[in-house]
Every structure is written in C-alpha cells, then in structure tokens.
Specification:
By secondary structure, this protein is of the alpha/beta class. It has one domain: NADP-dependent oxidoreductase domain (TIM Barrel, Alpha-Beta Barrel). It contains eleven helices and twelve strands. The strands form three sheets. An eight-stranded parallel β-sheet has the order 3-4-5-8-9-10-11-12. Strands 1-2 form a two-stranded antiparallel sheet. Strand 10, helix 7 and strand 11 form a beta-alpha-beta unit. Helix 6 packs parallel to helix 7. It starts with a strand and ends in a 19-residue tail after the last helix. About 7% of the residues have low confidence.
Length: 344
C-alpha cells in the first residue's frame, strides 16, 4: 500500500489528507459499534501528518435525518483525540435529501404538503448549517460545508457571497465546497471566494465529458475534487450480478442501472474489472494529484485503503479505454426529476 497524501485546495491549502478517504453515506447507527471500530482503524492507519477526509451529509440516514452526524458526535465525544485527525465535510441544504432548499418560491409552494418553513437564499443555508452544528454537538467543528446541489434559482455569486461566505465569517464552518456543480458554476463561485473542494461522482462507469471538464477546471483553480462512488454503488465489486441479489430495502433496487433490463448488459461491459475494487479506486486516484476517492463500503474500510496503489502506464491505457468506451445503460440515479439538479 502506498498510502499517498495530497493537499486540499482553496482556503485549506495547508491541510494534508490521505488520498483514499471515507464516504460515510452507508454508516448507519444500527451497526454503530462495528462501524466506528472500522473507521477508527482506518484513521489509525493514517500516514504521519495527514488527516482522514470524512464525507457526510445532513440527510445521511435511512430516515433522511441527521443520524449519521449524531453517530459522529458520539464518536468524537468518546475519542476526542481523533478530532484533529479528521477533516469533516458535510453536504446539506436539501429538502428530503432531494431538492435544494435555497429557493423561497419552491419551498413556499411545498409547505402545504410538507409543512416546511419558508426560507430564502442564505436563510435556507443557515437553517441547514445550524441543524448540522446541533447534530454534531460541541466536540467537532464542521470543517467544510457544501450545498448538496446547486439551486437553479440562486446564482453562484449570490449563494457564495450572501450565503456561504457570510456563514463562514460567523464561524459555522471553516471552508466552502460544492457538490454536483458544473465547471462554470465552480469558476464563478471561486471568483467570489476560494472553494476548497468540489464533489462529483467518478468511476469507471461514470466518467463523461462533464466530469472531465470539472476535473480540469478544478486543477486550474487549485480546487480539490472528491469522488463519491468510485466503485459505482458497489457494482464494480461484482457483489451484485442480478437484481435478485440487491438486498431488501437497498436504494440500489430503484436505480435504473441495476434493473432487470440494464444490469446484464452493464455486467458484460465492465466484466474485465469486476471484483477488483482496489484497481477501480487506484484508477480514480490516478486522475489527478488533487483528487480524493471516497469509497463508502464500511465493512471494507481497510481493504479500500489498499486501493492507493501505483498503476503502470499500460494499466492506465487499458482502464482509460474501458472508461471511454463503456456503453453503460441506465441513469446515474433514478431517472426521474432528481436528475435536473446534477451538474448545476
């Protein structure tokens, strides 16, 4: 294992993190003792002087609530020595984990049905960071906050200056990031205030022109890029070879790439690298010096860290060709209205 490190971007350029880090979406409180033990072991394996980059969400739970953050709060309360060993990034500002909540008009319209309080602009962001801060408790400060999706009703300049920068100056968090933004949005926001990280989905079955442009733009601007789902919702581990193997209640049952029509085709396309999770993570990590893969399978925390390996030039050529020619069928998500907020 190489255990490489990288510097973060923007205002966090002085912070060193391990390249292969941790996505916490699947860290549920039901299994908290085992989960915390595994993540603790991953942090213990840090190279000297580096932090573990942890990526959570205000809505990361089976209920769409803050259980994931509450679990982290209990971890830091029990192990305060790990506070400074981790860099915590949290996504928020979403209604039900689906819709950006910075839009006054949309939320006011839905209040009749969802009983939500009207918010607008910075107030939507404020309520989110206050909720996150409350769930985290007093033991760990939020290092980086990022809107989970870009609100089409708010310009990047206004979201940054009127919302995010104002909240940063009030001390709610230390750095600013974005999730599922496009290259133009990133450039416009970064012109107002340095962006530390942009989070996008990248894997051997999700590597299209949009991702490539964002990666190049982030490199130009000195912004880190964190890659969620580097092994494609676990698909590239060969853990699921038929829809019948999707566990009951697993959200992947609703993803169109896993349905009965598309799954057999997709399996044939990526057959050469199935069950080689470390190879997939290594390819993602090799896309730039400023990138941070975020595998999220808790039971494979230490195994995923083994993905920080050097690939030969021949291996990169072969994997690049596979990614470029992959005719993957189905949408990244459900194939519904949630797609309108991707690459905002």
């Amino acid at each position: 294992m190489v255990n490489r490190v990288t510097k973060l971007g923007g205002t966090a350029s002085g912070i060193t993190v391990r390249r292969v880090s941790h996505g916490l979406m699947m860290m549920w409180p039901t299994f908290r003792r085992r989960l915390l033990r595994l993540y603790k072991a991953g942090i213990d394996a840090l190279p000297a002087g580096a932090k573990a980059f942890l990526n959570s969400g205000e809505f990361y739970s089976a209920t769409g609530g803050t259980e994931n953050l509450e679990l982290l709060s209990r971890f830091y309360a029990k192990h305060p020595e790990y506070v400074d060993k981790t860099f915590l990034s949290v996504k928020g500002a979403m209604v039900g984990g689906q819709i950006p909540d910075c839009s006054y008009v949309f939320i006011a319209f839905n209040r009749v049905f969802l009983e939500l309080t009207d918010t607008s602009g910075a107030e939507g962001l404020r309520k989110s960071v206050e909720n996150i801060t409350k769930a985290l408790g007093p033991h760990k400060k939020l290092d980086l906050f990022q809107p989970a999706r870009m609100d089409p009703k708010v310009t990047p300049e206004d979201m940054m200056q009127e919302g995010l920068v104002a909240l940063l100056k009030e001390g709610y968090f230390l750095h600013i990031g974005f999730s599922e933004c496009n290259a133009t949005t990133l450039r416009r926001a970064h012109a107002v205030h340095p962006v530390t990280a942009a989070e996008i989905e990248v894997s051997l079955w999700v590597y299209e022109q949009e991702q490539q442009v964002i990666i190049a733009t982030a490199s130009e601007l000195g912004v880190s890029v964190s890659y969620l789902r580097p092994i494609g919702h676990g698909f590239l581990t060969a853990s699921i070879t038929s829809q019948a193997e999707v566990p009951k209640g697993d959200f992947r049952a609703h993803l169109t790439r896993f349905n009965e029509e598309n799954l057999p085709h997709n399996l044939r396309i990526v057959a050469p690298i199935l069950a080689l999770a470390q190879l997939c993570i290594a390819w993602v990590a090799a896309l730039g010096l400023h990138v941070i893969p975020l595998p999220g399978k808790v039971s494979r925390t230490l195994e995923n860290l083994q993905g920080d390996i050097e690939l030969s030039s021949e291996e990169m050529v072969e994997l690049n060709a596979l990614a470029a020619g992959a005719d993957i069928r189905g949408h990244r998500y459900l194939g519904g209205s949630e797609g309108q907020y991707l690459f905002g």
